[in-house]
Amino acid sequence: MAQPERMRLVFLGFDDESAADSVRDSLKSGIAKKEVVVWDWALLKTEPGGNVKITTDKSVDPGAARGAALGGAAGLVLAALSGPIGVGAVLGGAALGSVTAAMKDSGFKNADLETVSRLMADGRSGLMIAVPLPDVDRFDAFVAGHQEFTSADRRHQVDIVPGRTFEQALAEYRLHEED
Fold it and tell me: pTM here?
């Protein structure tokens, strides 16, 4: 049985959607430039009426569409290597890739993101970031060097380690908010 990932979950809350977008863009840029290491991030926006829009790092959780594209490409390779199998191999590969990607919800789990979104008031945005514990100091230095992170009006962080699950962290957050 594999050991659970050791990470720090960072939750940032915003009352201004554009501020949340700015922090997300800064984080994405830092990741691309290898200035900061994160396992995953998700931006949640609650709209009046309870509708929630969730944007995630597609490189971590590619989704069924990307899975279908990769599966279709695999089908093309199989067709080329195996001879005249035809369109069936491509379609079969695409279907398999789509199902596999949908089943393998890597990164933040959709159910966890939905649970967090229910804790948010309408009109607010939240950014969830998973940072590997060995890279926390580097993450903190990155945040300190980017002024836009100060626009978050709510901050909470919790370490997920063996014996402490995401669900336990949410329960602790709820208790903290009730105080």
Answer: 0.69
